[in-house]
């Protein structure tokens, strides 16, 4: 199933004309009904003010949710790089015959983690996840076998580092799955439509530009929130800078 919030540009292309047409519908509604009684107009104005206030709060809350999730994905990318780099150094303590194998596995694993951040293709992502899982099994098997000849404190030290490498990948995946809930998006869109309807109802006649102000502001806001919240398809993405820097360092050795 396609998630519309994974595609910010189509969301912008759909939301802008939708909100604009809704505002025009409000204008048409007023023209058809004629002038309303003063007390009814005052009441609708109060409803409009309350709806716009609520809409502003929901946009701010949703934007904050998206930014927090983006920061979380950045932090886990840094933690992954630290975990892999630390375990690479700890692997130097393994027997001379086993250390190069663990080093090679860690380098291959690091390359897969970089591809995970960079790919936009769903089919390629499935292949990356499969290779990542295989490398995780190979790394744990190679490390647990190699530490058998080491003293207990040293084996715990090295296995603990490998455990951090595996856990950091799980934390990263969980952070990428942690998105703004669909009910929050639904509430935001519904209130946006009602606000545009009321704006059109109260808009001065023969003012098409005025009717575009709120639809443009809301559409751009939705686009930005969706772009930040989409970890793989947005323009604002987490780039694996720390992982790439580590890869350059390790492959140069």
Measured as a percent range, the helix fraction is: over 70%
Q: Helix-strand pattern, N to C? A: HHHHHHHH
Cα Rg = 27 Å
Query: Main beta sheet: strand number and arrangement?
Result: none
CA distance, first residue to last residue: 44 Å
Which structural class do the helices and strands define?
mainly alpha
What topology does this entry show?
Layout: H1 8-33, H2 38-90, H3 99-118, H4 122-146, H5 152-177, H6 182-202, H7 208-229, H8 241-251
Question: If you had to describe this structure to a student in words, what would you say it looks like?
Answer:
By secondary structure, the protein is an all-alpha fold. Helices cover 81% and strands 0% of the residues. It has one domain (4-251). The protein has eight helices and no strands.
Structural features:
253 residues, mainly alpha, 81% helix, 0% strand
Short description:
With 253 residues, the chain is an all-alpha fold.
